[in-house]
Write a structure and sequence with these properties.
There is one protein chain. The chain is of the alpha/beta class. The protein folds into two domains: about 140 residues, Rossmann fold; about 70 residues, no CATH class. About 50% of the residues lie in helices and about 10% in strands. It is built from ten helices and seven strands. The strands form two sheets. The protein has a five-stranded parallel β-sheet with strand order 2-1-3-6-7, sandwiched between helices. A two-stranded antiparallel sheet has the order 4-5. β1, α2 and β2 form a beta-alpha-beta unit. α7 runs antiparallel to α10. About 40% of the residues are buried.
């Protein structure tokens, strides 16, 4: 990170209750539910948030804005987030701090291999853990000088965002035939289900991504479970 950027962040108006005040965080995340959680975490921490839902959108943001921190989901609809992490960390210009995130803890090594400064396992719900994860990867000169009031609050995203994710997956499943599309559905839905504490849906999504490919019964089962949750009105 350049001296100019470090100096700018070092001057941000931090306070003990909102330790990320003055930071801009770009969240690269395709799940509306996970993005809503990040929005609430940033809001409660004092940070501004920008969101990109795919690699293409993230590149567009990075050409226009200079975020202080980038949080990248490892599974995106148009590629793997480790590609973006590697690009950001290998760029010649002043670089933001980058964290990888995934509901699959096996992706942590992939994130660090690409150059990530840290990793956030999903679901990201704890305000204190979120703040600590971001602060821990900032250079010492950019961290608050006063004691931080750690807040153990748990964030609960709006269920409407969850329904948006399920509607999106219902559309994708209706036409998904190739392994790449089905693999994306498996990754996306397993993460969403884990965040929503829906073990049955998570198991069905994981089965879709198993080695050797899913059976027709696996696809039908998962499609039915998604439709059942949408029909229930207030999913989960």
């Amino acid at each position: 990170m350049s001296d100019d950027l470090a100096g700018l962040i070092g001057q941000r108006p931090v306070n003990a209750a909102r330790p990320l005040l003055g930071l801009t965080i770009l969240v690269v995340e395709d799940s509306r539910y996970a993005s809503e959680a990040m929005r609430l975490l940033c809001l409660r921490s004092g940070a501004r948030i920008r969101r990109a839902d795919c690699l293409r959108s993230a590149h567009r943001h990075l050409r226009t804005y200079r975020p202080s921190v980038v949080i990248v989901d490892l599974g995106l609809p148009d590629g793997c987030g480790d590609e973006l992490i590697r690009e950001i960390k290998n760029a010649d210009q002043a670089l933001p701090v980058v964290l990888g995130t995934s509901g699959d803890t096996g992706m942590e090594a992939k994130a660090f291999s690409a150059g990530a400064d840290g990793f956030l396992p999903k679901p990201v719900e704890s305000l204190a853990l979120f703040q600590q994860a971001v602060l821990s990867v900032l250079p010492p000169s950019e961290r608050p000088k006063m004691p931080i009031l750690l807040n153990d609050a748990t964030i609960s995203p709006d269920p409407i965002a969850l329904r948006d994710d399920l509607n999106h997956m219902a559309e994708v499943l209706s036409g998904a035939q190739d392994p790449a599309s089905l693999g994306y559905v498996a990754q996306f839905l397993s993460g969403v289900a884990r965040s929503a504490r829906d073990d049955a849906l998570e198991d069905a999504a994981v089965a879709l991504g198993r080695e050797g490919g899913p059976s027709d019964a696996d696809i039908t089962r998962l499609s039915g479970m998604v439709q059942d949750r949408l029909a229930a009105g207030s999913a989960f």
